[in-house]
Amino acid sequence: MQFGLLLWGWLVATVFAGLDVDTLRKVANSGGSGVIELTDENWEPVLEGPRDYTAILMMTTRSTQVNCVLCNEMRPYYDVISSSYRSEFPSGLPEDASQPEVFFFAADFVNCKTLFQKLQLSSIPKFYSLSAQDKASNWMKDMEEYAIMGEDQQHDLHKWVEKQSGVDFSLHIPKDYSQVITNVVLVAAVTIALYKIYNRYGAVWAASWIWSGLSIIAVLMFTTGYMFTKIRNVPYVREHSSGHKDYILSGQSQMQLGAETQIVSLIYGLLTLLVVLLIKGVPTVTNPAANLIGVAVVSVLIFVVYSMLLSVFGMKGLGYPYKFLQLI
């Protein structure tokens, strides 16, 4: 009932006597964000008549038929700025303030078509500031427009309002508890899922051979130039006009092909398996003769595979002095 009387008093003041600061302050403080909605019936006294306040105006729409995505994105920012100002100055600016009070207005296309037609807008949203004036003037030439650009629109718009009005006030952004609740539920769900998975497959995940294998694979990938080929986006092979393909760039130690990563990884992987076999596998053979044969065979294989690795080094660096068997 009280809000209805205030709103009725505001409309009467709008139509017959123009908008004064006390009436506007009551309407702005009556609830919500403090943004005063303009319509076809009340926008003229705000914009065309004399003002003893600074008017910040947003031209927008919430109509689903227009479907203005940027309007829906910017309106919450505008509401937060308005509510921040009203919460800091609910009774108006201090008496010794040198700047006039600030009021925030919004005109929706559905309810304020005459204003949209007068401004001849081709796109929305638009933000304007109109300074205080003693008498009616050509307000369309006097108003300042906010340029929508940049990434942090809420803070940019807030700074623009402060600059246009000359009034500094803090921005009070309400906490988004829905995001906090979502994060808590998500973390709880993931924790429960991991707990159940661990109870069922914990022995597998705790197995040393899995982590040893993953560690070896990671070491092979990062020591053979895998990240280099991904970052530089190098070709897998180099193909000549004759149809011949190079899998290793000979004489170019600062550049490599994608195939080189796999070749060197394969060689390192074979060497790793052979060394592990020599240290862990062969000693388990209890027969002395078989054990000796196993040591000899694995050692020869290590010698051959290591010769392949030295051959690759020799191809990449033509002055590389070490080699065993020339296998590549």
UniProtKB/TrEMBL annotation:
Keywords: Endoplasmic reticulum, Membrane, Signal, Transmembrane, Transmembrane helix. Pfam families: OST3_OST6 (PF04756). The keyword Transmembrane helix applies. It is a multi-pass membrane protein. Its main location: endoplasmic reticulum. It is found in: Endoplasmic reticulum membrane. The chain crosses the membrane at residues 180-197, 209-228, 263-282, 289-313. GO terms for biological process: protein N-linked glycosylation via asparagine. GO terms for cellular component: oligosaccharyltransferase complex. Residues 1-17 form the signal peptide. It comes from the Eukaryota. Belongs to the OST3/OST6 family. Subunit of the oligosaccharyl transferase (OST) complex that catalyzes the initial transfer of a defined glycan (Glc(3)Man(9)GlcNAc(2) in eukaryotes) from the lipid carrier dolichol-pyrophosphate to an asparagine residue within an Asn-X-Ser/Thr consensus motif in nascent polypeptide chains, the first step in protein N-glycosylation. N-glycosylation occurs cotranslationally and the complex associates with the Sec61 complex at the channel-forming translocon complex that mediates protein translocation across the endoplasmic reticulum (ER). All subunits are required for a maximal enzyme activity. This is Magnesium transporter protein 1. The lineage of its organism: Eukaryota, Fungi, Dikarya, Ascomycota, Saccharomycotina.
